[in-house]
């Protein structure tokens, strides 16, 4: 830190040392990258909003998965753009419909696509190498930029992240804009992320960034640089989350046996299917029992998904066990309740 106190402290692209480490990780994953292709941001969502502001305006269409990350949907709507959903099989049996993506690109002509192909939020699905190659070809043929949300890519709970499929950008070329984050892999309070893109596009993003902020905090960047040099920290994080995932899965199987889910190989949550369409009412009832969960409707472009609910495994096992017990009580209070008694959700 002392080495940086003598200058002005503004680094619109981020500290060179941190950008070099992020670029090296992309290269190790199969996507050759230089520090000049990386910009540090204040989290992955900040990165997405910067790209959104540059690529889309009011009335423009943005292709998204259905279901998808709720905060991305909110950002698209806040920009007065229109999210266009592409169905993702929530059971995990089929996953991404590449032919459907191809058709939507031709029919809707979106300004860009927003996709999460690594431990997708909320389903936990991961697109294999062959699927990425086909999807990259479809996007390239349509000349459609794609924002690839990679915030969960390092949370491979069954293997080495470097042994996983190459980044989608390896198949989509300069049309791909990757965003990543330290908050999922290390700590939610470490509000740093990054953008990996072509040098030309990154230069445009830097210019557009001045309307939003002047760069990311230096101290946090120094902390993240140290963390990225310590591979054991990420290994411990994955081991911890693997235990959390298995504990939550066991609690759901024991206390909510009629709920079903596909055990994800990575990520941070279970995407559970319930026997009745009561997700929104259950979320309201659960809050009164001290449990906060996101109903399926939050993940849909037009709501719906009332048989689905996301359960994160980010807390100690004993806490999640108690939460699932309370969910069981909350579910018992809403199953069979007439629709007219449903509580509103803001």
CATH superfamily of the largest domain: Type I PLP-dependent aspartate aminotransferase-like (Major domain)
Uncertain segments of ≥5 residues (pLDDT<50)? 337-346
CATH level 3 topology of the largest domain? Aspartate Aminotransferase, domain 2
Please bin the fraction of helical residues.
40-55%
Gyration radius over CA: 20 Å
Overall average pLDDT:
92
Described by the principal axes of the CA atoms, the overall outline is globular
- Calculate the terminal CA-CA distance, rounded to whole Å: 43 Å
Number of helices, where a helix is a run of at least 4 consecutive DSSP H or I residues: 11
Main beta-sheet strand count, sense and barrel state: 7 strands, mixed
Search tags:
single chain; 346 residues; alpha/beta; Aspartate Aminotransferase, domain 2; Aspartate Aminotransferase, domain 1; seven-stranded mixed β-sheet; three-stranded antiparallel β-sheet; 40% helix; disordered C terminus
